[in-house]
Amino acid sequence: MAVLRRKPRRAPGADDPLDATQERRVRAVLALGGVPQADLPDGVQQVRLRLLERAAKGDEAPRDVSAWAAVVASNLAMDWHRAKRRQERLGERLASLRQPAQPSDEESSVLSLAVAQGLDELPDAQRQVLVLRFYADLPVRDIADELGIPEGTVKSRLHTAVRALRARLHEDEVV
Known about the structure:
Elements: H1 20-32, H2 40-56, H3 65-98, H4 105-121, H5 124-135, H6 140-147, H7 151-171
């Protein structure tokens, strides 16, 4: 007759590397570090995860788990602030791209006139590729096909034309 042995029941949370006191301390460190209340459970989970990863790697358990968890929580709070600053800077950059600075009508007119004069001074071949590329918005390949010239020639003419036009605009102190 075989005797069935039951595995002893574990108390709830027995596998949890943080006891209730340590968890409260981690929450306090995160909160004092400026982490919002809504993000505290995620922070506590991160500390648990780091402790479990440490054990899974076979590293020795920290001598004072509570102190170790507090240091990890403090580092997580700093990481949270860094990530928040990165997000804010990214938001600012995206906002600046969405709303380009609008030049005044006078500045726009002066720039348009200077560009038109600069285009008039370019050799015909350079002006042609510049207009097709930037005003007609044609890709280099299509310009080369339409004009019957190699793509490298189109690129070379574009480069030379842009450089000459930029020099002219700087010379006239327009840009």
